[in-house]
Design brief:
The structure is a homodimer. By secondary structure, chain A is an alpha/beta fold. The first copy, chain A, is built from 11 helices and 17 strands. In chain A, the strands form 2 sheets. An 8-stranded parallel beta sheet of chain A has the order 2-9-8-7-6-5-4-3, with helices on one face. A 6-stranded antiparallel barrel of chain A has the order 10-11-14-13-12-15.
């Protein structure tokens, strides 16, 4: 640690999260400019960051709009003044009282559903409580998860009509299959398919005399590669704010734009095997191995120096719960860097959502290159 | 949820952890009896449970002994009265002040190391603070991670001598390669290899006139399959208390003994694809896919009814952050159970350490079969 620059990192307990504020701001500015050109609103998904400080950088204003993936997030952001949120995971009737409690605190929290069963429960709850809950119908963009098929007019209209005691607000799609792509043309086609499915479903509802003011689409890859969003009113995306190696493999972010790293300390060496051992195992990185299915397998992460510059070919080749095993990629001609016990490295994660969730706060590197501010984040449900 | 049994589960917000106290106690009793027969002490590893309530069931007495994987655990358990702990991850010199603070609160916390570099730092710290830190030398049982090779007498003795300002307490091994096995004879051989390596290293230190009172080995598979532990003084193991599908694949626990499940709520269906969607995605289950490398790939978990009985061939076939996708195993002739929106299921996890860490508490099912007590758990560093 001799001669360490005055970057504030030595004062931190490892492992911990480092967030590069400048990169977050640049990633947001780029997405905002892109969506402005396309003429759609941005409703940032806060499931990656789960931090009010990050939300305030991401949202159009301090009151939103925003997207959340859990009611815990909805409660936390409502407490922080966010007033316009979509809970973008299918609603269970047993969760409606918690939704109602957030709404009574002044937040316009909308729910998501894809069945008549749920719509009837939401209508019944709305009538019973005198609070017509805004609801979006989830439409299936690409067969990867939940949602009504965009061409299933019968189901769409039946759900819309079953919401008669509530407030049908529109349709919501997520093109999750885009995560498996990496060719820009294929990604642009996935974005267009998501748009077309959204517009088809909205048109069906409107033709049946039902309201559909909101047409909401979103995923980081399709948001990034969309060329035309005619008929769409808003885009949800979240992970692009931080970026990660998986999204870099898709081509949706650049490695140099990744804002989130895990700070780790070297705790040992195995000179016989060429391993450097750190205190950032899978508990700090998460178990996410999404890049294993991509063209370049990044192990449990790419190892950088304390300024965030990747060492040639050095990855977290394997991990135990509290041990990270750094090694050169197979076949690499690079030299193992000289990292004594106590040296600090930063590791780019496979998946920012998963890695973030292993931690309770961000240590923020500001414009001066020093770690200073601490931004808390939440977890759980 | 009409006709739901009075099991206390409907009152819980999902997803959440359910812990079957009877199974935890039975798993502990079985291990204790086994180690008693082998004549060795048990130093439970608390990295899986991270809960003082579970620790009190696992430890020989309220003061320990115990094993921890982070200093956060050491601080938490010391606060709860535990007085005898090994921090079983290689020490970084920058963490010694935190070790010292735990010790000043009355806990005998020992550190682990495998280099002269670390030993010199521990000795220097010990002299500077007038507190001779107890230290165990990590010995490599099977080439899977850290540690001095058991036959490397020169390194062992050099580290032992470099601890002259501290307090050499013994050797510590972890046979991590046993996780890749499943044949009982191979597992027994791995346990014997771990024992032999431990005894060889201890003999080397003692022959050099160095103290080696503690000979500590441990992993759930080798603890379970050890037939003779002559020369070993204590066994560390942790995940067996809860069990999981990965350890069941190894053969170290039975599926019926798994004490940890995730309670989930059905939030939708895809009748065209045969999917049932729940609110327990990878955030609730963890990203651990360890069973993918075993004979039976359990997806993200095995789906059980609310009493914990597995549905035939129903697994979490895929997962998004907050969506679990339940489906029958490929080729199964079983019928999909009738699980309406709002129904509750319990999911056996791949890896109890990873799944537990996604949550902040256990909801405990007691002898009456009802969920009642809440046991908090910690996370982070």
């Amino acid at each position: 640690m001799t001669g360490a620059p005055d970057d504030g990192l030595d004062a931190l307990e490892t492992p911990c999260l480092i967030l590069d504020e400048g990169r977050v701001r640049a990633n947001l500015a780029r997405m905002r400019a892109h969506l402005d050109r396309l003429g759609v609103a941005f409703r940032p998904h806060l499931k990656t960051a789960k931090s009010l400080d990050v939300a305030r950088l991401a949202m159009a204003g301090p009151e939103g709009p925003a997207t959340v993936s859990t009611l815990r997030e909805a409660e936390y952001f409502a407490e922080g003044g966010v007033r316009d949120m979509i809970y973008a995971v299918g609603i269970a009737p047993g969760k409606l009282d918690r939704v109602g409690a957030v709404r009574r605190r002044g937040a316009d929290l909308a729910v998501t559903l894809d069945s008549v069963e749920q719509a009837e429960a939401v209508s019944a709850w709305s009538r019973r409580h005198g609070d017509p809950l805004p609801a979006l119908i989830e439409v299936d963009a690409d067969g990867h998860r939940s949602g009504v098929k965009p061409g299933d007019a019968e189901a769409l209209v039946a759900i819309g009509r079953a919401l008669d005691g509530a407030a049908l607000r529109g349709v919501l799609l997520h093109a999750g299959d885009s995560y498996a792509l990496s060719d820009p043309e294929a990604l642009a086609a996935a974005a267009e398919a998501e748009r077309a499915a959204a517009v088809e479903a909205a048109t069906t509802l409107r033709a049946a005399g039902l309201p559909c003011p909101v047409v909401s689409v979103g995923s980081t890859p399709t948001a990034r590669f969309a060329r035309d969003l005619t008929g769409v009113t808003e885009v949800r995306a979240g992970v692009f704010m931080f970026g990660d190696l998986f999204q870099a493999g898709v081509g949706a972010v650049a490695v140099d734009d990744i804002a989130l790293t895990v700070l780790a300390t070297v705790i040992g060496h195995r000179r016989d095997t060429g391993w450097i051992i750190t205190d950032a195992g899978w508990m700090a990185m998460s178990r996410d191995r999404g890049t294993a299915r991509q063209a370049v397998d990044q192990g449990y992460g790419v190892v950088c120096d304390r300024a965030g510059r990747p060492y040639p070919d050095l990855i977290v080749a394997d991990a135990n719960q509290e041990h990270g095993i750094l090694a050169l990629r197979k076949g690499s001609a690079a030299a193992l860097p000289d990292l004594p016990v106590g040296a600090r490295v930063r590791i780019l994660p496979n998946h920012a959502c998963a890695t973030g969730a292993q931690h309770g706060r961000y240590h923020v590197v500001g414009a001066d290159g020093r770690a200073g501010a601490v931004w808390p984040r939440i977890n759980g449900w």
